[in-house]
Design goal:
173 residues; mainly alpha
Length: 173
């Protein structure tokens, strides 16, 4: 496939409108670039991280998956050619091409898990302070729930028949 100026421009514009503009929008909407005492560095809210993950998955689907499919098709074609070819120089060239494409495929396949792990680490760092606060809140909720459960058990054990006193009086008398 030949890369013309129009094709390059269209691909760049695709990338800009699929990735760059949404990323900038997320950072502007959820980000906080702080220069005061309260804000240190750049922080992004949890909904922003979710939006970033969605944008990343869309970019993966639109660009990376297509490239991986092309690479797999080329690899399969080269492997089929390797079985047929008998010329030593041609076999060497095919083997080198398979090695290069195989390496590219492995790297491409490993990019997505690496980026997702990096995103998870960033998400944990962003939510760290919020998680400490949430942990304390959950602790208080747990204590309250345990106390409520104790009273619910005591309430459940308070079973008295409506006419118990009259039954007890009959037994005594």
């Amino acid at each position: 496939m030949k890369w013309t100026k129009k094709k390059i421009a269209y691909n760049v514009l695709q990338l800009v409108f699929y990735g760059v503009i949404p990323l900038v929008l997320v950072f502007l909407t959820y980000g906080n670039i702080g220069d005061g005492k309260a804000a240190v560095g750049f922080k992004i809210a949890a909904p922003g991280i979710i939006a970033l993950a969605l944008i990343f998955l869309c970019l993966k689907k639109l660009f990376i998956d297509r490239k991986l499919a092309d690479t797999r098709a080329q690899l399969n074609s080269l492997k089929a050619d390797l079985r047929i070819k008998t010329d030593s120089a041609e076999v060497t060239n095919i083997e080198n091409a398979i090695k290069n494409l195989g390496t590219a495929e492995v790297i491409s396949n490993s990019v997505v898990p690496l980026l997702l792990l990096i995103l998870a680490i960033i998400c944990c760092k962003v939510m760290e302070a919020g998680l400490v606060k949430l942990s304390g809140t959950c602790g208080f909720l747990l204590v309250s729930y345990v106390i409520g459960t104790v009273f619910a058990i005591l309430d459940a054990r308070e079973v008295h028949g409506k006419h118990k006193e009259s039954i007890d009086e009959r037994k005594e008398g």
